[in-house]
Structures are given as C-alpha cells and as structure tokens.
UniProtKB/TrEMBL annotation, chain A:
Protein name: Origin recognition complex subunit 5
Similarity comment: Belongs to the ORC5 family.
Keyword Acyltransferase in record: no
InterPro entries: AAA_16, ORC5, ORC5_C, ORC5_lid, P-loop_NTPase
Molecular function (Gene Ontology), one example: DNA replication origin binding
Domain of life, source organism: Eukaryota
Compartments, as annotated in UniProt: Nucleus
An individual GO BP term: DNA replication initiation
Alphabetical list of Pfam families matching this protein: AAA_16, ORC5_C, ORC5_lid
UniProtKB/TrEMBL annotation, chain B:
Record gene name: orc4
Gene3D superfamilies: P-loop containing nucleotide triphosphate hydrolases
Organism for this UniProt entry: Clarias magur (Asian catfish)
GO CC annotations on file: cytoplasm; nuclear origin of replication recognition complex
UniProt-recorded Gene Ontology molecular function terms: ATP binding; DNA replication origin binding
Record lineage: Eukaryota, Metazoa, Chordata, Craniata, Vertebrata
Subunit note: Component of ORC, a complex composed of at least 6 subunits: ORC1, ORC2, ORC3, ORC4, ORC5 and ORC6. ORC is regulated in a cell-cycle dependent manner. It is sequentially assembled at the exit from anaphase of mitosis and disassembled as cells enter S phase. Interacts with DBF4. Interacts with POLQ.
Protein name per its UniProtKB record: Origin recognition complex subunit 4
The keyword Nucleus is assigned to this record: yes
C-alpha cells in the first residue's frame, strides 16, 4: 500500500513512517484527521463526529494517531461512564492529572466540570490542542439532555483549545437534539473492501507456514464468509479458529502447500459448518477447538446452545402449552369447527389448521383469554381433568418460565389475557 | 517538506530567558533588525534557506490565522450586516452602564446567526470606555451548564465575588443564597451601586427551571428601582416568550432583537471572500498579497460559485460556511500553498455526503438482500409494520424464484 500518504506539518518524519505501517488501509482517513488537527499549537475544530461500521478502525486510527504523536488526549468510553460524573473525572485526570479531578464535588454537574476545567486551564495553559475522544457516543443521548450539546461546544464554553471527537456507529442525523446544537464536522470511515480485508487479515501469519499459504487460506475464508459478514474482528476470530484444520492435510502429509485445490476441498465444508455453529456462538470457540482435536467426531455432533431448548415439562403443562399455542395462532371463529366436532374429522381439520397456521405465523401470536385456553385444553386432553389449583398454578408457572406471557396487566384474576411465546419447532417437539 | 518544523522551536527560543543577555551584546541596529525580523516572522539567518522556509512558515501562519477565525470564532472588527441591531444593543447596554438604567432584552436568531458575536462585540466596545471598564460587573450564565436554579445561583454569587465566597467555594443553602443576593441587589440604588450585566446564554433552557425563580427574580430586580441590572438573553427559539410564566413575562420589557439572516447570495459571496482574505497585519506582506490575489481569482471561478450557491441554498448561516472553509483550508500545505477550487470541491463533497448511504454501502450482501425484501414488503403493504418472520418469508420467496441457491443461508444466520 502507498506509504507516503501520511504527511503533516509539525511532526517528525520517522513517526509518520511507523504510523503508516500501523494504519494499513486507513491512510486516507488518517491523513484527513491529521490535516484537520493541523499543527499541535493551532486551533482545531470544536467537535468532530466520526461514524462507520463496527470494526472499521475508528478508535484504532484515532488513538494510534494521538498516542504516537504524543498529543494530550483523554479517551473515555460511554459504556464505562454510567454517569456523567465518571466521565468528567476521567477527562480531567487524563488531561490535568489527578489533583484536578479531585477538585470535583461528589455529584458533579456540567457547571462544576467546566469551572474546574477553566481553573486547570489557567494553571496549565495549552501549548497544544487537547483532545477528548468519546467512544460509543450513541450512549450520550441517553445521558443528561445537556451533555451532548455542551460537549459539542466545549471549546467555546471552557475557552481552551480543545477538540472533542465523537465515535459512533450511528449516523449524525439520529443525534441531533430538537433545539439544535453546534454542528460537528462529519467524517465517515468506510468499510474495508474485500482486498483490504485480505490484506489486513494476511498480516498476522502463522510462523511455521509461508505467508502465501496463509493469504490463500484467508482468500478461501473470505469466499465463504464475505457475503454474510464483513466485520473484521469476527473474520479474524474465525480465521484464527479454523487455521489448524486447514493445515491438517499438510501435517498428515496428504497434501503439499501447492495443492490449493485439495486444501480448498478439505476446508470448505468445514467452514460452512463453522458458519452454522461458531459464527452464531452456539458452540463456543473452546469447544470448537476441542472438537477439531478429537476429529473423529462429526463437527456438529456436539449439540449447540439452541439445541438445548428442549425443556422437560409435566404432563398437563405440555397440554396447556399446546392449547395455548393453538389459541394463539388460530382465529377464535375456527375453534368450534376444530375442537367441538367429533373425532372422526380430526385428521382433516389438522390439515386445514396447518394451512392456516402458516399465514398466521407471520403476524406473531395473538392474545387470548384464559377461558378460551381452558376450553381448548379440555377438548385436547382426552381424559377428564378437574380444574384443580395445580392446573391454574401451572399456567402461572408457565408465565414465570416465559413460555407464556401475560398481556395487559389490567386484571390479575378476572379474565387475564395471555400470549404464547414459543416457536413452532418447540411445540412440535412437545406434541 | 522537510523544512517545516521551525515555527514551534523558534517561538520557544523567543521565550528563553537567555535572550535578554544575548540581545544586550548587540548594538542598537542589530536589535532593531531583530525586532523587525521578529515581526516579519522570518527566522532564518542564512539567506540561502530563507525562501524555502518562508513558504512553509507562511502556510503555517495562514493556517493559524484562518483556523482561529473559523474554529475559535474570533471576533470580527464590526458585525457584518447587523448594523442596526448592533447600534440598538450597544445603546441599551450603554444606558445601563452609564446612566444606571435597568434593562432587559432578548436576542433571538437561528443557530449560527451571530448572537454571541453581536453581544461580545457590543461588550468589547463598551469596555473600551474608561468609566465603564472599572464600573460594571458581568455574570455569564449558560442554560447548558447551569441546569437548575441552585447551580445558577451559586455561579452568580461566585462570579460577583460576594462576601460568602471564599476562594471559589460558596457557602450557604439555596434559600440563604437567594435572600443574600436579593438583599445585595436591593440595597443598591441607581446612583451608587455598580451596574451588573446578566448574560443568559440559551435563555429558553432557563425557562424550563422550576417556577422560573431565577428569571422572575432577575427580571423583578430589573423592573423595580434597585441596583441597575441589564438582563440579556440569547436564544434560538422564536416562541420563547410563550415559555415564560405570566408573572415573569409581565416583568420582561419585551425588547427583542431579531437576527434573521438576511444575506443575499452576493453578500454571501462577499462574506466568503472576506473570511478567506488575510488582514494587513499578516507578517509576510508579499505572501499575503499573493494569497489575497488568489482568493479573489478563486471567487470568480465558476465551479466555486456553484459550490457557494449550493451551500447558500442549504443554509445561510456562517457556521456551515466556516466548517466548509476549514475543510478546504486544512488541505493547504507546503506542497500546494494556495487554496484551489479542487480543495473546495472536495470539502463540499465531504460536508454534503449522505451518511445513510455511506452506512448502507458497508453492509454485506445478505443484509442488503434483507433490506430489499423489506422494501418489497413496504411497497406491497404500504407502510404496514412487519416483523422478522415476514421479511424472512419474503427473502425465501426470492431465493426460490430468482437466485439459484447461492445465498441459501440458515435461518439463524439470517437472523443474525
């Protein structure tokens, strides 16, 4: 990749060289950032908003730039800062040292923060632009209403040469408060293209194999996964997990490094299986690795997380659940036809029911009253069931197991309404 | 490209304490020359490198000047296009400062229309008067920072440096503070006490405080003959008076200064030119002349004019112009020391980029397929809400009919 893309007045060449190596495929963005920041002692724009997909290198690029060039900066993540006070404390201690942060009162308001920031500024006047990097900035919207507008115009409020970077996956239009605010500069980090992904992923090679082999492996991996997933982290994780399987034929001596076709044939079904298990986190990566070592077992012989969905229920609970499912996914007007008539027609109605169910399935379950549930329950169960306390308590315990949900908490005892919250596969397994 | 470093190091060498001793050894003429050199910011002692250094340094100077103009919102000498409002405000503030008359005024205008700039200009001019400078007190409050009356009151006592302030700590409860402050304001009268300017930024946020106690008290003081105060509110809401309670509203003087941007396109062009033009006090006069010549050439460029027209149509405020110009100016470097139309074009492209389109561009094929099927659903059922089941069904139909099992993914994969 082009190495000379980064240049910036006022910072040494050799550092830029190492920076260029660190930020592969992000030269254009890093260059824009550098020109925006300008020389360290010049003013920079009050706030910059950077958006892009997950794992497109937003915080990586920004933080490498700031730390390599040794600019004073404070990086806070909104996930960690559950309250604004924590954020103020982190910013102050990163920019001015711990004693400035200790000046904050117990429950600091924005006013306190700005006042102490100003004081600290007077003591340590800025030679360089100070930077505040706020990661996961979408969470700022859920904090105090004034925090985001105040951060955006922090430069004006504290009267210091400070720039606030906001990093987010959400576009700026969703941030704007309704009374407006100081508009930040918007900067987009585009996603990596396939070639760039290939380039980045092939950088971390395996020591005992040639880089060419590894990059061909990455090529195969991308061929399988690229249409589903473009997340660099996910892909890197998958690449690391499956590489040992890829190398097996060579270790066993069945193939050489040049037999790409053979290797491809060996790995491809394996990767496809990985998409259904590891990618969805049904099988954890540790289990996946163990499986590859055992090898004689089939790859998905282990039951994943979702296969554990089967729950052992008591006899009547099963029927209750089936009744609830029937009540949820069938319209009430067909009840008479399905459940009242004699048993000779059951087969036919079953067929009809299925036909209707598929169309109803799309819209999700409908709520039904308790009376209807019990009526269907009695018609489904062949024997006589007394409406004992245990039957009713089983209904409420189904609610606590989240197999049923109660709709509209208006009335607890008088005709409560329920919804059935289980899938078709689950019900089929039970029935 | 290598000779860019010096400005920082040269600045620091000026500051060094050994400089005085160093200077004293020189005779008067060299000293004068040194001063001249300093003002012109040409640091090189060797003639041969002078030219090259100057370019790098000039560019860095230009960046410094313009960046300060765009980012830090340095005050202009006179507010442009707001002469009558400026005169009005200045007269009002002067009457409070000199004659001890209490006033209240609201400056209303959309975001980025220069409310703060207008006020700061007026205050700056006012403070040039000798008698005013020593006399008045200023209290700056912002609705963003002082989110309730308690905090605002503490801030007022702090900024007025009243007796219950030690260092910057304020003692006393909210009620005590209020009583104390009101007493202090009441005790004064027109002739003896110093006038106080209350400047309330984001005035509409103060109107959301409980009972609007602060506003009531401030406006009450300005209404009755107590210490002379001027309450200046800055807001971007046109209906701000509707937010006020009746008792607060009746005490407000209903003086409003509207800053509705009345720029025409030709004024906008002039503003564009003025923003980029270097002042006479720029150290290197030759470079600044060249630069200004380039700028006026740039203003006549057809493509630049188109960009300006586009921006003018989308918004007339100065801030968007500033952000556009900053993006353009930041591309000026040693290798291309003038601002070109290409830079502006690039900046305009960057600032008007469609962010949702950008995000959409980064999705994987599967996600795009799902979005297309959602679009189908939306077309067929016209705005009805849909769930994953329906989208998946639509997607499956697409798979069966059109694509030949290429994108045949399991349901959980699609769900993810």
């Amino acid at each position: 990749m082009a190495g000379a893309a980064l240049r910036c007045p006022g910072c040494p060449e050799d550092k830029l060289q190492t920076l260029t190596e660190d930020l592969t495929c992000r030269e254009a963005q890093a260059g824009t950032l550098l020109t925006l920041m300008g020389e360290p002692d010049q003013y920079s724009y009050p706030s910059v908003f950077i958006y892009g997909h997950r794992a497109s290198g937003k915080s990586h690029v920004l933080l490498t730039l700031l730390s390599q060039l040794q600019l004073p900066h404070a990086a806070v993540s909104c996930v960690e800062c559950v309250s604004a006070g924590l954020m103020f404390e982190q910013v102050l201690s990163a920019l001015f040292g711990a004693d400035a942060a200790s000046l904050l009162p117990r429950a600091p308001s924005l006013s306190d923060f700005v006042r102490i920031y100003r004081q600290a500024c007077v003591q340590h006047p800025a030679q360089h632009t100070r930077y505040i990097v706020v990661e996961r900035a979408e969470l700022l919207r859920d904090m105090e209403a004034n925090l985001l507008p105040a951060l955006l115009r922090l430069q004006e409020l504290v009267d210091d040469n400070v720039t606030v970077f906001l990093l987010s996956e959400i576009v700026w239009e969703k941030f704007r408060p309704n009374t407006g605010c100081f508009e930040p500069l918007l900067l987009h980090f585009p996603d990596y293209t396939k070639a760039e992904l290939l380039h980045i992923l092939s950088r971390d090679t395996h020591p005992s194999y040639t880089p060419e082999l590894y990059s061909s492996y990455i090529n195969i991996l991308l061929g399988v996964f690229y249409s589903v997933c473009r997340d660099l982290r996910e892909l890197r994780h998958l690449a690391a997990l499956n590489f040992s399987k890829f190398c097996e034929p060579m270790e066993r001596g069945e193939a050489r490094e040049s037999d790409t076709h053979k290797l491809w044939r060996n790995i491809e079904p394996h990767l496809k299986k990985a998409m259904q298990s590891v990618y969805l986190r049904e099988v954890s990566s540790v289990q996946w690795e163990e499986q590859q070592q055992m090898d004689e077992k089939e790859a998905t012989a282990l039951r994943g997380l979702s296969a554990h969905a089967h729950v052992e229920l008591p006899y009547y609970s099963k029927f209750l659940l089936i009744a609830a499912y029937l009540a949820s996914y069938n319209p009430a007007r067909t009840d008479r036809r399905f459940f009242l008539k004699h048993h000779g027609k059951m087969k036919k109605t079953n067929f009809l029911k299925k036909h209707e169910k598929t169309s109803n399935h799309l819209l999700g379950p409908k709520p039904f009253p308790l009376d209807r549930l019990l009526a269907i329950f009695y018609s489904v169960v062949d024997s006589r069931v007394a409406p004992t306390a245990s039957v009713f308590s089983q209904i409420s315990s189904l609610v606590t197991l989240q197999l049923l949900t109660q709709v509209g908490h208006s009335d607890q005892l008088d005709s409560p309404k329920y919804k059935c919250a289980v899938s078709l596969d689950f019900i089929l397994a039970i029935s | 490209m290598t000779a860019v470093g010096p400005p920082c190091s040269s600045e620091s060498s000026f500051m060094s304490p050994s400089m005085n001793a160093f200077l004293s050894e020189y005779d008067h003429m060299t000293w004068l020359k040194y001063i001249y050199d300093r003002t012109v910011h040409i640091m090189s002692k060797r003639k041969s490198r002078e030219k090259h250094l100057t370019v790098g340094e000039c560019v860095s100077q230009v960046q410094r000047v313009l960046r300060e103009r765009f980012c830090h919102q340095r005050l202009p000498d006179k507010p442009v296009g707001l002469e009558s409002q400026y005169k009005h405000l200045l007269e009002l503030l002067r009457r409070t400062a000199v004659h001890g008359e209490s006033n209240s005024v609201l400056i209303i205008g959309p975001r980025g229309s220069g409310k703060t700039m207008l006020l700061r200009c007026a205050l700056r001019e006012l403070l040039e008067l000798q008698e005013v400078k020593t006399n008045i007190l200023q209290v700056h409050l912002s609705g963003l920072l002082q989110t309730d009356d308690r905090i605002a009151l503490r801030e007022i006592t702090r900024q007025l440096q009243l007796e219950n302030v030690v260092g910057d700590k304020v003692f006393g409860s909210f009620a005590e503070n209020l009583v104390f402050l009101l007493d202090a304001l009441k005790k004064g009268d027109k002739s003896s006490s110093r006038p106080v300017f209350f400047i309330l930024d984001e005035f509409d946020l103060f109107a959301h405080h409980k009972n609007q106690t602060l506003l009531y008290n401030l406006l009450d003081v300005s209404q009755s003959a107590q210490a002379p105060v001027a309450v200046v509110g800055l807001t971007c809401r046109l209906d701000v008076l509707e937010l006020l309670e009746k008792r607060v509203k009746s005490r407000f003087s209903h003086r409003q200064i509207h800053l509705l941007s009345s720029l025409t396109i030709s004024q906008y062009r002039d503003a564009f030119r003025a923003e980029l033009t270097l002042q006479d006090d720029f150290p290197d006069s030759k470079f600044s002349q060249e630069w200004n010549l380039d700028i006026s050439k740039l203003c006549e460029d057809k493509s630049v004019d188109e960009i300006l027209q586009k921006h003018y149509n989308s918004s007339k405020d100065f801030r968007s112009l500033h952000s556009l110009l900053l993006l353009a100016v930041s591309r000026v470097s040693v290798s291309s020391p003038t601002l070109r139309a290409v830079d502006l074009l690039e900046a305009s492209r960057m600032s008007s980029a469609d962010s949702k389109g950008n995000i959409l561009h980064g999705l994987s094929i599967l996600e795009l397929c799902l979005i297309i099927s959602m679009k189908h659903l939306n077309d067929i059922y016209e705005g009805e809400p849909f769930n994953f089941q329906m989208v998946h069904n639509e997607f499956k139909k697409f798979l069966q009919r059109k694509s030949h099992s290429i994108h045949n993914f399991e349901k959980p994969v699609v769900f993810k």
